[in-house]
Amino acid sequence: MNTTNHLPSYLEQSDAVRNRFDRLKAREVLLEIKDLGKNYKTAKGIVTALKDVNFTVHRREFVCVIGPSGCGKSTLARILAGLESHTSGEVLLDGKPVTGPGRDRGMVFQGYTLFPWLTVKKNVMFGLEMNNLSATEAGREAELWLELIGLEKFAHAYPHELSGGMKQRVAIARALVNQPRILLMDEPFGALDAQSRVKMQAHLLEIWRSIDITVLFITHDLDEAIFLADRILVLKAHPGEVQELIEVPVQRPRSPEQFASPEFLATKARLESLIHTPEPEPDAEVKPHMIRFVNIADNVE
Amino acid sequence: MNISSWFVARKDLSQGNKTLLGIGSFLFPLLIWCVVSYVPFVWHPMVRISNPGDVDYFQSGMLVDKTVYKDEQANMHTAGKTPPQGKPANPIYLPAPLDVAKAFYTGFTTAPDQQDGQWLYQSLWHSIQIIFWGFFLSSIIGVPLGIFCGTYTPVSRLIEPFVEFFRYLPAPAFGALAVAILGIYDGPKIAIIVIGTLFQQILIIANTTRKLDYALIEAAMTLGTSRIKLLLHVILPGVLPEIYRDQRILLGWAWTYLIVAELIGASSGITWFITQQARYQHFNNVYAAIFMIGLLGIGGDMLLAALGKRLFRWNLSANKE
Ligand SMILES: Nc1ncnc2c1ncn2[C@@H]1O[C@H](COP(=O)(O)OP(=O)(O)OP(=O)(O)O)[C@@H](O)[C@H]1O
Ligand SMILES: [Mg+2]
């Protein structure tokens, strides 16, 4: 990649971007992760999924987490959500340790987890009703959110009648209606086609801009991470450790045109070098050697 | 329908073809039965004597083995006496479809032979009540317990090993015990159905409950759902359609225990009817009663299936059936 030579460093920030980061860091710390470690006991012995992870997230910040497959991204999100325990270190939300799942941390999963027996509206109402809000009030809130995500026409549809993108929009609304402090998203758009993915990203940024929410977004798509994030936490695998916490130098508000901007490309080049250079995966050593089964003259290229 | 199109894996059929094949699945065995009953050269190992001739132990209307008949015919020929006459017939235990159909009809219209006897519909109604109470009692215990086992691992580890053991004990083996404890009337019969159903039920419902996608439970937990609400608002509604389907299958099993149950103590119900009729060699009535059980079973199941479709509209697999 000789274009990298012409790119600015990903560390260079324009004044506008630097000012934004200064303002961001002046906000109160929402999430603090100290020396976080996680070991899984398996039949083959102990697997270290996370080791010495340290970072802080400020209120209304948008943090993306990327890293190769198996580096512990999902484990991190699940620990923050309280769905998994950690073996060492601390997770503090607003200064208080996280002990189990709770409504102050919403989560959107990669798989579709809408309750199939509830209509779209009832799905959105679910969290409020579980927290003892009256049905009428919950219904009013849900309607507001359905309007916000543009699915008011589908209020009485069942999840199996929705497309993948719609399902994830409802899942986001279902989490946010509960007014969590932080929204944890584990590859929420991973199963979507490229087009709906782009739409959903823009949509998510719009929601993030309009309400008081902090987002921790897991992805393995570099473009997605740069497009969405204020800062990107890059993990490496075996064991899952923090490689770098990158401040994205791309200006906000973001738009798809910025994919070609020098800051964007510089950040992407940096991420690529971080993620793809380390020691090769075991499968990379298995080289396919293909034999030609067709006539030489019958060439497709 | 092209035959090669039959064997496309899991291919869906048009409603018309489904109905056609459904009717066919009943017509085909009926056709075989008709052929065996009405075509004289198919099977017919017996001969019904119409005229005994000079054979002293033959009587008009008697069923004899074909070889015996042929021997006697040859004997009479050589002795110069009148040979017997008769028509090929099937053994008494295979009545013709028409006879059974008649018995089916007359079962409802004629009074019982014995004075203390019951009408067919009374016997049936008694059987249905036994099934209902047996299955109801079993479900009241088995369904909640199964759901608990499927939800909470300690409960499962405490209950399931014993249940797993108990389900191998044949329910009829408890017959004498049940009579000793519960008397000779309906008590022990209901108990046999409960014993036959309950232990399977606990295990099946527990397994079904465990199959609920764990991600749904996790999603609910991240929405701040308390433990008790998780059971009532996530696990229960999530597994209900599958449990409903299990219950339909289990109800079918309960029917198979009915016959054994009704033989215990004072025999009663449809089983009593069947054994009585068999004793008098009224096999057409026996078949009629057996079909009646079949019809009740499948009729009930179709009703429950239709109800399930309405109840669980959100469930794709239930609607596909
Ligand atoms: N329940 C578990 N038991 C044992 N090991 C586990 C468990 N869950 C995850 N691991 C291991 O922990 C490591 C991190 O897994 P994790 O799912 O967090 O990775 P990931 O970064 O989300 O991967 P992907 O990009 O494929 O989603 C992996 O090596 C995995 O094998
Ligand atoms: Mg993952």
Strand and helix map with partners:
The complex is a heterodimer of chains A (301) and B (321).
Chain A: H1 15-26, E1 29-42, E2 45-58, E3 62-66, H2 73-81, E4 88-93, E5 96-97, E6 105-108, H3 120-130, H4 135-148, H5 164-176, E7 182-186, H6 194-210, E8 214-218, H7 222-228, E9 231-236, E10 241-247, H8 262-276
Parallel strand pairs in A: 3-8, 3-9, 6-7, 7-8
Antiparallel strand pairs in A: 1-2, 1-4, 4-5, 9-10
Chain B: H1 15-38, E1 46-51, E2 63-65, H2 66-79, E3 85-89, H3 97-109, H4 120-151, H5 153-166, H6 175-182, H7 186-210, H8 214-222, H9 227-263, H10 269-279, H11 283-311, H12 316-320
Antiparallel strand pairs in B: 1-2, 1-3
Helix pairs in contact in B: 3-11, 4-5, 4-7, 4-9, 4-10, 5-7, 6-7, 7-9, 8-9, 9-10, 9-11, 10-11
Question: Summarize this, please?
Answer:
Chain A is α/β, with parallel strands linked by helices.
- What share of the residues of chain B lie within helices? 55-70%
> What quaternary form is this?
heterodimer
Q: Specify the CATH architecture of the largest domain in chain A.
A: 3-Layer(aba) Sandwich
Residue runs with pLDDT of under 50 for 5 or more positions of chain A: none
Q: Please provide the ordered H/E string of secondary-structure elements of chain A.
A: HEEEHEEEHHHEHEHEEH
Chain pair sharing the greatest interface: A-B, 29 and 23 residues
The CATH superfamily title of the largest domain in chain A: P-loop containing nucleotide triphosphate hydrolases
Shape of chain A: globular
Highest-level CATH class of the largest domain in chain B: Mainly Alpha
Terminus-to-terminus distance of chain B: 21 Å
- How are helices and strands ordered from N to C of chain B? HEEHEHHHHHHHHHH
**CATH fold-level name of the largest domain in chain B:** MetI-like fold
**Looking at this structure, what is the CATH superfamily of the largest domain in chain B?**
MetI-like
Q: Which CATH architecture of the largest domain in chain B would you pick?
A: Orthogonal Bundle
Q: What is the number of strand segments of chain B?
A: 3
Figure out the total of helices of chain B: 12
The proportion of residues in beta strands of chain A is 15-25%
Counted beta strands of chain A: 10
User: Strand arrangement, largest sheet of chain A?
Assistant: 6-7-8-3-9-10
Please give the CATH class of the largest domain in chain A. Answer: Alpha Beta
